[in-house]
Design goal:
The protein contains one helix and seven strands, in the order αβββββββ. By secondary structure, it is α+β, with helices and mostly antiparallel strands. The relative contact order is 0.16.
């Protein structure tokens, strides 16, 4: 007859404990990797949105330098940039109000807005909604350009506001006399 030793089952218990620890470490590492992936995707989407907003500002600034696009004296112009062109039609009289961030006062302003899009490798990588405001502050003409960049857009370069992944970033450029 065999004699039982008190160490029987120790190997099985040790194997279960080691497997549990290894599985716990693996789940922890996968959780960190998943969070890092989500953070990097959010950073990428934010980058696309801020680049689209910056491109919208640059587009208007270059068109203004080349063809005086912000002038209301030539009311019908077209800005070409990115993969789209946008007609600018100024209204004759102020059609909105503009809130100057320096003191929060509203000013009667003339506004024109348009969308521009950007592609890379045949895919739409962003779009911008650009609004140009023209108003008078202390008898000086002020032109403000606001560009809202988006990372997800439809084929008409409108922001896809139905997706939870849509990121919007904005920039503003102000010209004064």
């Amino acid at each position: 007859m065999r004699q039982k030793t008190p160490q029987q089952g120790y190997t099985l218990l040790f194997a279960v404990i080691v497997a549990t620890v290894v599985l716990g470490v693996a789940v922890f590492i996968l959780g960190i990797g998943r969070k890092q992936y989500i953070l990097s995707a959010a950073a990428r989407d934010s980058m696309y949105a801020i680049y689209a907003a910056d491109s919208g500002i640059d587009c208007v600034a270059m068109a203004n330098a080349a063809q005086d696009a912000l002038s209301t004296s030539t009311p019908n112009q077209t800005i070409n940039c990115g993969v789209s062109s946008a007609p600018i039609t100024w209204q004759g009289s102020p059609n909105t109000t503009y809130h100057d961030d320096s003191n929060g006062s509203p000013y009667p302003a003339t506004e024109v807005s348009f969308n521009i899009g950007f592609k890379s490798g045949g895919n739409v990588t962003g779009c911008a909604t650009v609004s140009i405001y023209e108003y008078y502050k202390s008898n000086k003409l002020v032109e403000a350009v606001q560009s809202l960049g988006h990372n997800l857009c439809d084929t008409n370069y409108n922001a896809d506001l139905t997706s939870p992944r849509t990121v919007e970033r904005g920039l503003e450029l102000v010209y004064t006399d």
